Amino acid sequence: MNLRDLHEKARRSLDPVHYDYVAGGAGEERVVADNERAFDRYALLPRVLCGGERRDTAADLPGAPGASPVFVAPTAFHRLLHPGGEPATARAAAAEGAVLVTGTASTTPVAEVVAAARSRDREAAVWFQLTAHPRREATRALVRRAEEAGCTALVVTVDSPVFGRHTRDLRNGFTDLPPGHAAENMRDLPGAPPGALTDIPMSPAVSWADVDDLVRRTALPVLLKGILHPADARLAVEHGAAGVLVSNHGGRQSDAVPAALDCLPAVADAVAGRVPVLLDGGVRRGSDVAVALALGARAVGVGRPAVWGLAAEGEAGVRRVLAALRDEYDHTLALCGGRRNSDLTRDMVVRKGGTW
Ligand code: FNR
User: Fold this and answer.
1) Which residues form the signal peptide (predicted)?
2) What 3-state DSSP class applies to 33?
3) Which residue among 75, 156, 307 is best mutated to probe the pocket of ligand 1, counting the most ligand atoms within 8 A of its Cβ?
């Protein structure tokens, strides 16, 4: 069973409105489609006679040494999609040695998510995705919750000054979590006005000063998620970011941006090795992982594929997704004559149709 089959199984098992919530994106969903298509525009040019019996695919990431090169990108509301919720995702990621980026919009409190991961692997790395609250005091409280829970890095989402307009959700009237579900990390936040726990407030006034404040106040590495412009990648490093995640939010924010993959080389050049560069968006096969690593990523995230695994088969489904991608990636690395991730270099990626 491959990832496509799990996607199909998830589609059949989910309420169609919830399926659309996950599958959909902003506007005409041009970016959703382009993120995947971008990988089809490249081919891998292998090297020969330089491989080894064993390959080392571990990636050293902030707060996660020796992790799988495939991590679980933050996605909201797992209990809506499977009763096992975020704890099931966390156990699966930990069992596969993959970093889980758990979200501000989790339907399980972050402390329980980390505990679930550590029940599988005492060393499991869980990162906390932070959506900065319009009130700084509330943001600081969220950070404290993540620190106390034992998260090993913060991933600040910077591509969401306003909420994306998800066409399918608007058409389906899906604007609130159904009764019985809540964004648990948002409960009783100091400084936040009491209100519904069904959406995550955002602010277009969040700025580099907020990044400075965060970096100053936490001992955790701070990564910025949603960087596309190389100038912002440079600023991120200057403001103390420990990593840059090239992402267009899976096509759920602007429908006018380039595919995430197409932004990667320029960001990698701007960062120039000072901090790790990560990527998410459209990764569906092991060879996609290889292309992204060759173009400068240290690791790649999967959003929807992990959710399809969860919805289809709970913890076991997420494990299958992560194991399949890691296994396919390892196989691709062998076919490219590589022994380790850094053996994949930019000269080994060519535009299809040939550029020489
Ligand atoms: C997301 N994503 C996301 N990102 C984020 O920073 N905070 C969030 O709360 C969410 N929530 C969310 C929900 C759902 C249902 C999806 C599909 C995505 C974006 C996510 O982290 C990631 O950037 C993309 O999903 C990557 O693209 P793929 O792998 O889905 O193609």
Assistant:
1) none
2) helix
3) 75
